[in-house]
Known about the structure:
With 631 residues, the chain is of the alpha/beta class. Helices cover 48% and strands 23% of the residues. It has 5 domains: 2-122, Nucleotidyltransferase, domain 5, CATH 3.30.420; 131-143 and 150-230, Alpha-Beta Plaits (2-Layer Sandwich); 235-356, Nucleotidyltransferase, domain 5 (2-Layer Sandwich); 416-501; 511-624, Cytidine Deaminase, domain 2. β2 (19-26) and β3 (31-38) form a beta hairpin. The longest helix is centred in the C-terminal third of the chain and has 103 residues, at 400-502. The two termini are 73 Å apart. The relative contact order is 0.05.
Amino acid sequence: xxxxxxxxxxxxxxxxxxxxxxxxxxxxxxxxxxxxxxxxxxxxxxxxxxxxxxxxxxxxxxxxxxxxxxxxxxxxxxxxxxxxxxxxxxxxxxxxxxxxxxxxxxxxxxxxxxxxxxxxxxxxxxxxxxxxxxxxxxxxxxxxxxxxxxxxxxxxxxxxxxxxxxxxxxxxxxxxxxxxxxxxxxxxxxxxxxxxxxxxxxxxxxxxxxxxxxxxxxxxxxxxxxxxxxxxxxxxxxxxxxxxxxxxxxxxxxxxxxxxxxxxxxxxxxxxxxxxxxxxxxxxxxxxxxxxxxxxxxxxxxxxxxxxxxxxxxxxxxxxxxxxxxxxxxxxxxxxxxxxxxxxxxxxxxxxxxxxxxxxxxxxxxxxxxxxxxxxxxxxxxxxxxxxxxxxxxxxxxxxxxxxxxxxxxxxxxxxxxxxxxxxxxxxxxxxxxxxxxxxxxxxxxxxxxxxxxxxxxxxxxxxxxxxxxxxxxxxxxxxxxxxxxxxxxxxxxxxxxxxxxxxxxxxxxxxxxxxxxxxxxxxxxxxxxxxxxxxxxxxxxxxxxxxxxxxxxxxxxxxxxxxxxxxxxxxxxxxxxxxxxxxxxxxxxxxxxxxxxxxxxxxxxxxxxxxxxxxxxxxxxxxxxxxxxx
Length: 631
């Protein structure tokens, strides 16, 4: 048995593809291989090695939503189970219960713990699909717009769909699978046929794909909610002889020996893992009274029943009881004695259960209930009530084949009646077409004569009309171009007038004109440039410092702006960019600004001083950052 333990590795960001810690456990050899893989490679390994179980401590590490889990489960083999080993508690606490050490800071350790717990039968199987399969058989191509051979082509395609549907139906009947069928009848067969099979996808041997004119799609029926099913295993009886050398014996409920072994090197987790690989212990037995703490601890781990002998057996009695079994030492013999004694206590009840239990009832579950204290009659009735629905479904499937045959005969009769009616209509239609064809031939002859007379006149008119259309198009294009030139001229005149009117009078020798923008944004800068122009050495005042960032600052630097004044505080992205591009910027509180209409003015002397101070401050900031400053 091969089990994949998966845990997402830490220190991953949302922008990067997550990596997974993968531990591959082989329960037969106890070999563990560890890998670090991406999700794509994980799916490829699952499809290549086809493990029995993929175990994780949280299914949302493999898929954040139900849609993502659906995508994952559709990409892996249907026989591979997805198991979540936790039930809301932490992985570390659950692993400690089974004697497994986990390093919570090591994803590879957690992945190995997930695989080990799944091997022990701990956890819940995740199911997003029902145990039903949907098969759709339909056309693989469109029938087109039609033509002389349209109906013949339709009959061929629909016949192929019908043939493929019958083959699938025969396969399902042969395997005695319950199903429902819904077909849409087309010309000569089926346009579409849908099967809903009451079986999981792995049990339905129908391959999807395209087969000429037919396509077959096979999919699982999605559940409304994710289902968590607790893992179940075959019941066993376990005998333990603790000590420096520990002996372990495992029997099934029929009294057959499954495993007998002893070792000095077994840890508690090794014992738990090995025992659980043979099934779920129902009874844990000891050959001494009271049972040692190790036996009680193993019993508590599996929530099993503890069996203690009434009085210790002598060596001669142990040898007689284990006659016919091959054991290597006294430890294995004592463990086997404990198993056999426990089995002997319930042997008669087990035999009675097998005689009384009706067909279809899980005998091992009945035995487990009896061992836990339920009477044989109550246990059988309880299991019968659980399996009643299954028995009813099995009984109802018997007349399925007869019903399918009757339905097929009715379909064929309906198809035959339709074809006879279709032939009658086609014959009447052919007679009508022959009369119309004769009339059309006479009409065509008359029209051809008129066409020859009109063709010459028409050609002359066409040539004249084409020349006129070309000239008219040229005139329209020239007029449109002239109108665009006029509008552009007027716009330029208006812009020039606004610039001349808007520019105020000021002391140009002592004051510097400052152009005012509404907000620190590319749109506001474009408005200022369109209205007043934006030249190398200009100073701009932004009435609102919000809205812009590094890109806006870079735009001002490219325009050759000498300095920038803000009312408010710009973003740190913008200030960093100004420092990088050597564009001085100030707050309106630091320098006196005189506003007049759409313009503002600052003292040339004060501006130069502020720029000099800013340059010195920039040098100090860049030196602190370790940046080389070029003067």
